[in-house]
């Protein structure tokens, strides 16, 4: 008997029929003798409907009240999923984030989970019930409802799995696993049976939409075995594993990319200690996440040029903040570009194989693709290129690294 | 400066425009220096939409999960009303029933309020905020969400007013006050400026839909001044008062009626101590409310006939229970009728004026209306008649007691 946490996203619970299909799947797992916790998102379209209501009243809805509003989306789903389970003769009980004390910080709309009180869930499991928990939401120390931001339901599931020391956390989605790259861009993309946590972390953070990055971080930190599967087909999906050795022997596991990038550059900043903090501090205070960061000494040797990337939605606000900072620091100029994308090669094999970077740059050069920024880590090489080269770049790299062939 | 609790029903918050109108009204009261607590229902149609979703899954939805589902209706409204207030520059904060600890018993879908922790609300009021609370819902001792049943938002408002010792509890609705009878049945019906609590209690319990009965009981018990007003027009509405003396000098304040009645009779029950309890006990255990009760010794002197009325929705279940009871008690027969209505004369003046009952029976007899049951209290006389006589009976009594004329 295993304790399994399953997470179903908005599409998987998008209609009464789909909710009933989820209940049947959960029941099959339970009939095999497992204990089940089910974490669900709002029915697809519901969150957008609620946001639209709010925006009719306030173009920028009050963050605290927006969380009160949006959290109703998952609350509807947990009740319906519990009813569907009960209707199948499978005892079930639903809980909101607040009810199982998914304690978060105070950042409304983008809260982070701090703690979970698993006692109530455990009592229900021991009593033979399936426990259905609202994803995406929690409660702060003042008892106010918080939400984790889009995609937060994955994080909820992993956090609950960690708190319960579950045997596996299964993320059901509309794809049947993790692919070498997005099949919509490269039809030859191939499903991976396994991928390491580090690789998945890079893939997720780079815009592969299968899993939300914080959920992967959480899973890695608390060593929760994570599996991505389809909620529409049967199949083993992709297991996210802790061991490098077991992994297929490919140097590169996949190619991730991110369309929603924008870059900002501040030129001619007087070079002095603490300048990076002075530039990025105000950005962080505005709760904007910075991705790539590059700093170079300018040709004059006395000033420095500083470039970073942010999510495209945060571009206008970042530009505004950076212009103020430039003024305060006496920098020469601020430039920016939101017509860029990032493409990354990811693979643990990269560690022990030289020459990956040069092969990557050669493949891109051959297609005449100009590289704007480069950033590397132990298991990843990322390049920023003009938006128009995204598909061409991904396909060129997919072919150059033989990802369409099984390596075994 | 007064502390005022205002309650707005589903129609009053039925669209974004109406929510904005509510916010403007609340702001006007606050601008006059008052402290405001606003209790709201789900947007009209929302509760029905949610029930429909649930019934697609379970014809009789699990009561606990139904409460989880339905409570989202008011949660959406509190967020939107708070946003609308904030948009008008009026600081506001929303709370679910659980968040302000509206503690109830465990009867899902029909819970009763036991206690309210007003500390959180008071802290916000003292900080100058309008507090927006979800009506209709609470939380039991286990932390499960409960709902009070249809119309429960009125009770929430009064309970909050009582806990805060508010100066007035205003119930905004789609009528502009309490009438001598339903104007849809008798167009000559007249709005009352004041009515006593006892009279209102009888009017409400007899099916005048303006206020939910439990809210009036609560208001009477905790001496909360209650006012019914229109959320669409200006006007003073009807004040529900504690003093008899001030009341208009009419013997009769109004005529209430209830279409949703059914009566059940158990015939030939062996007459022995405890028989009433044996008959009504199982009905009460099924959470069915019994209204009129009549017991007569049968002509044989050894058995008794026992008649009572219930809500028409509870008729099939009541009949089933009563048949079992009849079998156990060795009673002769069970009969029933769900084509009946109840019409009642209500007025504190009745206490000191003889002859009201005979005038009532005479007025009905003149129209050829057969009376099936009679029940009286200090300030009320109720008769049960065939459903087809409802309108005729109400109009005959309205005229006979001169309710279309101002008595002053």
Keywords:
alpha/beta, VC0802-like, globular, lysine biosynthesis (chains A, B), transferase (chains A, B), ACT_dom (chains A, B), homodimer
Characterization of the model:
Chains A, B: Keywords: Amino-acid biosynthesis, ATP-binding, Kinase, Lysine biosynthesis, Nucleotide-binding, Transferase. Chains A, B: This is Aspartokinase. Chains A, B: It holds the Pfam family AA_kinase. Chains A, B: Substrate binds at residues 47, 74. 2 copies of one chain form a homodimer. The two termini of chain A are 33 Å apart. In chain A, helix 5 runs parallel beside helix 7 and helix 6 runs antiparallel to helix 7 (213-221). Chain A has an 8-stranded mixed β-sheet, sandwiched between helices. A 6-stranded antiparallel β-sheet of chain A has the order 16-17-15-18-20-19. The first copy, chain A, is α/β, with parallel strands linked by helices and 408 residues long. The first copy, chain A, has 2 domains: 3-174, 3-Layer(aba) Sandwich (Carbamate kinase), CATH 3.40.1160; 255-400, VC0802-like (2-Layer Sandwich), CATH 3.30.2130. The longest helix of chain A is centred in the N-terminal third of the chain and has 25 residues, at 63-87. Chain A is built from 11 helices and 20 strands. Chain A is 34% helix and 29% strand. Chains A and B meet through helix 1, helix 2 and helix 3 of A and helix 1, helix 2 and helix 3 of B.
């Amino acid at each position: 008997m295993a304790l399994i946490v399953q997470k179903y996203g908005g599409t998987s619970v998008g209609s009464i029929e789909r909710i009933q299909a989820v209940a049947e799947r959960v029941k099959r797992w339970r009939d095999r003798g497992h204990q089940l916790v089910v974490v669900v998102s709002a029915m697809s379209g519901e969150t957008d409907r609620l946001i639209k209501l709010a925006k009719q009243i306030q173009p920028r809805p009050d963050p605290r009240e927006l969380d009160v509003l949006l959290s109703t989306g998952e609350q509807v789903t947990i009740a319906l999923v519990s009813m569907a389970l009960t209707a199948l003769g499978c005892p079930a009980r639903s809980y909101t984030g607040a009810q199982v004390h998914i304690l978060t910080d105070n950042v409304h709309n983008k809260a982070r989970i701090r703690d979970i009180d698993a006692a109530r869930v455990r009592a229900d499991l021991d009593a033979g019930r399936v426990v259905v928990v609202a994803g995406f939401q929690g409660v702060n120390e003042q008892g106010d409802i918080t939400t984790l931001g889009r995609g937060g339901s994955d994080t909820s599931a992993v956090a609950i799995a960690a708190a319960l020391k579950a045997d596996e956390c299964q993320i059901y989605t509309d794809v049947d696993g993790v692919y070498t790259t997005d099949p919509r861009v490269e039809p030859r993309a191939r499903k991976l049976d396994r991928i390491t946590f580090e690789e998945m972390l890079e893939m997720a953070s780079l815009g592969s939409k299968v899993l939300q990055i914080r959920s992967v971080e959480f899973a890695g930190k608390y060593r929760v075995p994570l599996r991505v599967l389809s909620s529409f087909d049967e199949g083993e999906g992709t297991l996210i594993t802790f061991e490098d050795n077991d992994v297929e022997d490919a140097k590169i596991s996949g190619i991730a990319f991110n369309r929603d990038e924008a870059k900002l550059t501040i030129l001619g900043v007087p070079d002095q200690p603490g300048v990076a903090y002075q530039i990025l501090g105000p950005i962080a205070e505005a709760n904007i996440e910075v991705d790539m960061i590059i700093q170079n000494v300018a040709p004059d040797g006395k000033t420095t040029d500083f470039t970073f990337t942010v999510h495209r939605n945060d571009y206008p606000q970042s530009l505004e903040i950076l212009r103020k900072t430039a003024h305060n620091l006496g920098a020469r100029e601020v430039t920016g570009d939101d017509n860029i994308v990032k493409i990354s090669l990811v693979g643990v094999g990269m560690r022990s194989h030289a020459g990956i970077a040069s092969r990557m740059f050669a493949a891109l050069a051959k297609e005449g693709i100009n590289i704007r920024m480069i950033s590397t880590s132990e298991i990843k090489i990322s390049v920023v290129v003009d938006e128009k080269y995204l598909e061409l770049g991904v396909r060129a790299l997919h072919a150059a690294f033989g990802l369409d062939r099984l390596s075994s």
